[in-house]
Amino acid sequence: MNILFVHQNFPGQYKHLAPALAQLGHRCVALTINKPPAKIPGVDVVGYRPQRGSTPNIHPFASDFETKVIRGEAAGLAAHELRKRGFKPDIILGHPGWGETLFLRDVYPDAKMLLFIEFYYRTQGADMGFDPEFPDEGFASHARLRAKNANNILALETMDWGVSPTRFQADTVPALYRERISVIHDGIDTQHVQPHPDAFLDVGPQKQRLTGADEVITFVNRNLEPHRGWHSFIRALPEIQRQRQQAITLIVGGDSVSYGRPPKEGSWKEHYLNEVKDTLDMSRIHFLGNIGYGDFLSLLAISSVHVYLTYPFVLSWSLIEAMAMECLIVGSNTAPVREAIRHGENGLLVDFFDTKAMAVTVSDALANRGAFDALRQQARRDAVAGYDLRTICLPAQLRLVADVAAGRMPQA
Fold first, then answer.
1. Span 218-255, pLDDT tens digits
2. Element (H, E) at 279
3. Of 37, 71, 145, 306, which residue is the least packed, with the fewest Cβ within 10 Å?
4. How far is CA 362 from CA 215, 305, 356, in A?
C-alpha cells in the first residue's frame, strides 16, 4: 500500500506505527510542518510551510479556525504536489488537531482516511469549568470553544474511521460519530520500560545521588500548569515536607503552556511556586526541567511515590509509563485517570483539589512503603496487559489500518 502520514510534529503518535508499516513493505510518506529530530526508518518525510499569516483584528471566535485553515491549505498544497509527482495513498493516517487534514479529502477523494481523535472540546464534563480557580466565563468562553470545534467536526465528518487512545477521550466526541472510533492506546514498550532496582539519578549542583532507597516524590509534566495539577501539587508539598523530613521531590516540566491559557505574566510554575515558597524547604526540591528519556526512566525507577494529576482531559503517556515501572501512583480522582488506576488495587486516588488529603496520602505512602508493594506490582501487570506496545497496541493498530484500507468494518 501507499500510506500518507500527516502530523504537525511527525512522528508524534505514529512513532512506532510508521516504521512498523514501512517494515511490512508499504510505501510510507509523511507530511509535517516540523522536521523530525531523527530519521524514521522507511518513511519519506516531506515538509510544508503556511503560505500566509493570520488576519489582523480577525474576530476572536474565528481566529483558531483561521489558523487551522491556513495550515490545512499548506498541507493540502503539499499533498497536491505529491499527487502530481505520482504519489496516491491508499490510506491517510493523520492527526487533525492543527487543521492539516482539512482538505486532504479534496486532494485524494479515493483514499481511506483514518484519523487520530485526541479530544473534542466540551462546555461541560471535561476541562472547561472543572477548576473553580478558573471559572467559566459564560457566553464568550462557550462561543469560543464551540467555534474551536469547527475543525474537529469537519475531521469527524470527513474521516472513514477514527482511533482514540482512551475511552474517556473517545467519549468526548458527539454520539453520532462514536461508533466509528476504535479505542487503541499508542502503546508503551513495557520490555524497555520496566523496574530497574539498581537505577540512580544525580541531581542538583552537588550531583546528589538518589536511589530507590531514598524517599523520592516524583511529579512529571511536559509543562508545569493547572491542567496537569501543578497548583494542587505544589500547595500540598509544604505539608508533605513537614510530615516527611527526609523526602526529596523531583519535578520534571517546562515553563511554557501546553494546555489552557497562559498567566497574565511569567509562568504558571513561578506563579504557584511563589505562593508557597516561604513554607518550603527548597533544598529538598529539584526542578529538572525537560530531561532525556533515559533520565526520565531512571527517575521513575527510584520513585517512592509518583503523583499524577490532570483535569478531565487527555491522558499523559507518563502515567502508563509510571505504572509499567512499578511506581506507586497517587493520582487525581478524575475520569481519565480512573480508566487506568483503580483505588486500592493498582494505585491511590485523591480529589484533585483536596491538597490536605493529597499530603496525607503521599506522606502515609512514604511512611509505609512496603505496604503498597502489591499495588505497584498490579500497576505493572495492568500496564502490560492493557497497554503493551508489542503484544497489544501495535498489533491492534496494524489490524485497524488494514481493515480501514480494505474497506472492512473495524471493531469500534
1. 999 999 999 999 999 999 999 999 999 999 999 999 99
2. none
3. 37
4. 11, 7, 10
Strand-pair category, 216-223 with 161-164: unpaired
Whether 411 shows a pLDDT value over 90: the answer reads no
Tell me which fold the domain 200-387 belongs to. Rossmann fold (3.40.50)
Chain centre distance of CA 258? 10
Q: How many residues does the chain have?
A: 412
| 335 within 8 A of 127, measured Cβ to Cβ | no
Q: What is the pLDDT of residues 272-321, one digit of tens each?
A: 999 999 999 999 999 999 999 999 999 999 999 999 999 999 999 999 99
**CATH 3.40.50.2000 residue ranges in the chain?**
2-187+389-406, 200-387
Mean pLDDT of the chain: 95
Decide which of 408 and 352 is more confident. Answer: 352
- Cβ atoms 411, 367 nearer than 8 A: no
> Which residues fall within 8 angstroms of residue 245, CB to CB, at 6 or more apart?
none
Residue with cell 482511533: 163
Q: What's the pLDDT at 38? A: 82
Q: Which residue has the higher pLDDT, 25 or 39?
A: 25
- Could you tell me which residues are beta bridge partners of residue 248? 216
Q: What is the dihedral of CA 153, 156, 159, 160, to 10 degrees?
A: -150
CA distances from 377 to 329, 345, 350 (A): 11, 10, 20
- pLDDT tens digits for range 113-154: 999 999 999 988 899 889 999 887 788 888 999 999 999 999
Please list the helix, strand and coil fractions of the chain in percent, rounded to the nearest 5, in that order. Answer: 40, 20, 40
pTM: 0.94
CB 206 within 8 A of CB 283: no
**What is the Cα–Cα distance from 229 to 352, expressed in whole angstroms?**
7
Cα 26 to Cα 298: distance, rounded to the nearest angstrom: 36
Give the β-pairing of 43-47 and 305-308: unpaired
Quote the pLDDT of residue 412.
55
